[in-house]
Amino acid sequence: MEPMKKRSVKAWLEEYWPVSTPFLAVYLTVVLVLFVLKENFALFLIWLQTPVYWVHQFEEYICPGGFVEFFNRKVLGSKREDWPLTKTHALWINVPIIFVAFPLSAILAGLVDISIGIWTAYFSILNALSHVGMFFRHGYNPGLVASALLNIPIGAYTVYYFATSHPLSLGAHIAGFLVALAIQGALMVWGLKFMKAKATL
Q1: Residues 97, 19: contact at Cβ < 8 Å?
Q2: Dist CA 174 CA 197 (whole Å)
Q3: Transmembrane stretches, by residue range (predicted)?
Q4: Is residue 166 left, alpha or beta, with left meaning phi > 0 and alpha meaning psi from -120 to 50?
Q5: pTM higher than the cut 0.85
Q6: Which residue pairs, CB below 8 angstroms and at least 24 apart, start in 96-101?
């Protein structure tokens, strides 16, 4: 019974983790506006990347959803909507980065140094640009609207703010960009190379 219970919890998480994103986005945004916006605008911008990305995930997986199916059929050319990219992959890609690394970086940005969080803005921009790139090749893809209306403009404004009104060192910007590029690059290589190879099996 115990292995079956573990599988049930895992299956439930794989199916329903995105459902939390709109509620978390609204709750965190309200908290940020009430308690962080006026006190520390720089930190507010770093924290803001997290609810913005939750909205992005909501579009990808809930409304209208279908990113896994889109990526398999359109990008990878698979004959199946659920292979080679699976709901398990979606869980283990999205949750560690957005539910863990983004908030943790914002916490450290407040406690240690604000520059620790700048990579989240760069990552938000880079990932959003990948959706724009897919649009020119495949048309609308889940996550595109949030990318165009939220991720890119808010991410770009954050980078601009930290380059002008609250300047960080060039090294901090380079480090943040490289971290974001490494994560996005790893995701793209994994998705477009290794998953692509599995799509033909």
Answers
A1: no
A2: 33
A3: 16-37, 90-110, 116-136, 143-163, 169-192
A4: beta
A5: yes
A6: 97/123, 97/183, 98/50, 98/53, 98/54, 98/57
